[in-house]
């Protein structure tokens, strides 16, 4: 009879491809190495904290002030936002998924050199307030970074209403010299202007003050053109009707204890999901699959 190995033992037996180690704050993490570069994923929140291609600056921004603690979210990388987006009275910000230690289910190396790692969200007291559901998160690392969040309504008779978002922080050379393309003509909620409803009129969004916008009913690809780093980051998505663009700027950055006062200059969030009016309603037995592919090229 063949020996039965756990996913962690399998990971440890694949040197140079998948490694399991203690991350910052002694939180367990997985490091994936491919011929194209490396990625890091913490079990806390199933949180991708870095993705760096060879001979290229990091694609993801991670705050030097982030608190790596079981009780707090990681600041930067790709927080998994579920089952709500934004504040929820009495229950905090952006749901509970990013604060839970996810279970590692399996890892799958492919013949083409890519590696996929699959996580699932364990049961918790917070989850019991909702109809029975399952949450899986698959991270695939190769020349690109692809993330898929799968939510399944396991209830026999109740619908399940939720929001989801992959709240991606991107590293940029200088916030003053980037341009975000792909949202012209899209209606959005301007959270800086008390959720005023507006429509994007610019071909390229340039950031020179606090920006916090929820673009609705948009499924298109967004690109970040970074003149300082000489690259273009491409955000392709499937089953996502919302795109959020965020930079805290000076005053908000100074108010966040887990974010450096000047770090707003080196990051921008372009987030993909289904929030606000685009929230998802799953009938019993149905699943939703939010997929985001991040790639980069020289500009």
Structure, briefly:
The chain is mainly beta. The chain has 2 helices and 25 strands.
Q: Can you describe what's shown?
A:
With 299 residues, this protein is mainly β. 4% of the residues lie in helices and 44% in strands. The protein is built from two helices and 25 strands. It has helices at residues 7-12, 249-255; strands at 18-22, 28-33, 37-42, 47-53, 80-81, 87-88, 92-93, 103-109, 115-120, 133-141, 145-153, 160-162, 164-166, 169-171, 178-181, 187-190, 196-199, 204-205, 211-215, 222-226, 231-238, 242-247, 267-274, 280-282, 287-298. The strands form five sheets. The chain has a nine-stranded antiparallel β-sheet. Strands 5, 13, 14, 16, 17, 19, 22 and 23 form an eight-stranded antiparallel β-sheet that branches. The radius of gyration is 19 Å and the shape is globular. Residues 8-16 have low confidence and may be disordered.
Spatial order of the strands forming the largest sheet: 8-9-10-11-25-21-20-15-18
Cα distance, first to last residue? 55 Å
Q: In what range is the share of β-strand residues? A: 35-45%
Number of β-strand runs: 25
Look at the structure and give the mean pLDDT. Answer: 94
Structural class: mainly beta
Radius of gyration: 19 Å
Query: Helix count?
Result: 2
State the helicity in percent bands.
Answer: under 10%
């Amino acid at each position: 009879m063949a020996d039965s190995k756990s996913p962690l033992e399998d990971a440890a037996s694949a040197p140079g491809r998948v490694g399991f180690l203690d991350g910052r704050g002694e939180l367990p993490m997985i490091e994936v190495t491919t011929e194209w570069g490396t990625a890091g994923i913490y079990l806390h929140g199933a949180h991708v904290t870095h993705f760096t291609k060879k001979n290229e600056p990091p694609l993801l921004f991670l705050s030097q002030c982030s608190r790596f603690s079981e009780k707090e979210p990681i600041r930067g990388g790709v927080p998994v936002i579920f089952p709500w987006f934004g504040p929820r009275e009495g229950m905090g910000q952006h749901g509970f998924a990013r604060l839970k230690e996810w279970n590692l289910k399996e890892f799958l190396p492919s013949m083409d050199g890519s590696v996929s790692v699959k996580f699932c969200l364990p049961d918790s007291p917070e989850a019991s307030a909702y109809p029975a559901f399952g949450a899986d998160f698959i991270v695939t690392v190769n020349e690109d970074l692809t993330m898929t969040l799968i939510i399944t309504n396991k209830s026999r008779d109740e619908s399940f209403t939720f929001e989801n978002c992959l709240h991606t922080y991107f590293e940029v050379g200088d916030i003053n010299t980037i341009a975000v393309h792909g949202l012209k003509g899209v209606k959005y909620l301007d959270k800086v202007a008390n959720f005023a409803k507006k429509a994007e009129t610019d071909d390229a969004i340039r950031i020179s003050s606090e920006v916090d916008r929820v673009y609705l009913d948009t499924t298109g690809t967004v690109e970040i053109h970074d003149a300082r780093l000489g690259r273009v980051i491409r955000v392709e998505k499937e089953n996502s009707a919302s795109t959020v663009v965020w930079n805290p700027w000076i005053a908000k950055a100074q108010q966040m204890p887990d974010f450096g006062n000047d770090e707003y200059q080196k990051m921008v969030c372009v987030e993909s999901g289904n929030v606000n009016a685009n929230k998802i309603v799953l009938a019993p037995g149905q699943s939703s699959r939010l997929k985001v592919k991040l790639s980069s090229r020289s500009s």
